Amino acid sequence: MSTEPSPKTAAVLSTLLSSLMFGTSYVAVKMSVGDTNPLLLGSAVAAVGTVLIAIIMLFRGTFIGDMFRHWEFWAGSLVNTWVMALTYVGLTLTDASAAGLIIGTNVVFVAIFSRVLFHEKLGVKRIMGVTLALLGLVTLTTRWDPAVFQGSQMVGNLLVLLAAIGIGVTVVLSRVALRKIGPDQWAFGMHFLAPAILISLSIVVPMDGGLDRSVLPAILFIGVTCTTIPTVLWTRALKHINVVTSATVLMMESAFAVFLSWLILGEVLDRYSIFGAIMVFAAIFLLAKNDGK
After folding, report:
1. CA distances (Å), 54 to each of 47, 79, 189, 257, in order?
2. Among 7, 80, 103, 232, which is most exposed with the fewest C-beta within 10 angstroms?
3. What value, to the nearest 5°, has the Cα angle with vertex 46 and ends 212 and 218?
4. Among 287, 274, 268, which residue's Cα sits nearest to residue 101?
5. 3-class SS at 210?
6. Given its phi and psi angles, is residue 48 left (phi above 0), alpha (psi -120 to 50 degrees) or beta?
7. Residues 140-151: pLDDT tens digits?
């Protein structure tokens, strides 16, 4: 009797591992953006990812020029650049734990986009999950206090929320893209345009900080461990599970981000963060129920 896991089980485990690695990025970026321009940091991280994935593709023989002919390749690259810019800038204004939880709500947008574009059934439990996640999101971002709308942390939360929507677009777009190009090519595409665009944005958008050699270890760690490896793991797993399942498992990055933010950064979770997190994770459970392939 074979003890090897099924392709679907292996894909879920691979996605879970990638979610844990993604979760480390919030703390790593938060620790790096203090005196560093977040757009330049994102550009350097994306450059590391682009080069590393290109090397992997050359080794595997999957670097094929035909990938540049598909609009999905370019769309994925633009959307992921948008996600990186919003996340890195947002983390200069809000806590890493809050950012991780807000990013985790991308599964809500995946479920909504999948319903609109692919007519996937939501069902009662998923509708309840979406509603609960939205309530959790409002709790996390506003703490039900009108005064918060005047603070910089609210701006950071909104930027991260826009990034979460972008991740939802990327996850759904991957369903179409992976019918035409391979997982490695899709992962490469998501990094391809980011270095040039983020450098250009750093010139146009005035922000404090620069980029010096002292942050090189952080760039390599974020670029390799928090970005490239989990992206490759995630895209390859998408061949065996659907996008809602993938997005649901990826929400575990929120839990890991919160835990590391408390452990390393000493961030304190107030009652609104705790209640919001409970609602978000309850939504994960509801959205994951009865998820067909």
Report:
1. 11, 20, 10, 28
2. 7
3. 45
4. 274
5. strand
6. alpha
7. 667 677 665 566
